[in-house]
Write a structure and sequence with these properties.
Strand order of the largest sheet: 3-2-1-4
Number of strands: 4
Shape: globular
Strand content: 15-25%
Distance between the termini: 31 Å
CATH topology: Nucleotidyltransferase, domain 5
Structural class: alpha+beta
Largest sheet: 4 strands, mixed
Radius of gyration: 14 Å
Number of domains: 1
Helix content: 40-55%
Number of helices: 4
Order of helices and strands: HEEEHHEH
CATH class: Alpha Beta
């Protein structure tokens, strides 16, 4: 089992538990250059809010999209957009990534901006 298949295996287990909760899901994806976050509805059929480090407004705030500072900005933005969509409580789906670095920074920034998980 390589690194990617192990991460995907962890992600599947996490999503199965989140599906049982029947609550909106905050999904994270990261690449070496960018960070992406989306909030999915409880049944997973709709994207309620999204924020990425590739957006022009966010690129102006940070010089590089693949670092902790960019993740903090994405976390703050996704929380603000979730509030506008009427979502205050979500389940955090870290997509099998370890909870440190960019993932932790994004989660902390979203919590500080009022998102509950």
């Amino acid at each position: 089992m390589n690194k990617q298949s192990a991460r995907l295996r962890r992600a599947v287990k996490t999503r199965a538990k989140i599906r049982e909760q029947r609550i909106a899901r905050l999904g994270i994806y990261r690449t070496p250059k960018h960070t992406y976050a989306q909030i999915f509805s409880a049944d997973g059929s709709q994207v309620l809010a999204s924020a990425t480090s590739t957006e022009k407004a966010l690129r102006e705030q940070c010089q590089f999209g693949g670092n902790v500072e960019a993740a903090k900005i994405v976390g703050k933005t996704i929380a603000e957009r979730a509030k506008q969509a009427g979502v205050t409580q979500v389940a955090f789906d870290r997509s099998g990534y370890k909870y440190h670095g960019r993932i932790k920074a994004l989660a902390d920034a979203a919590r500080e901006s009022g998102l509950e998980f």
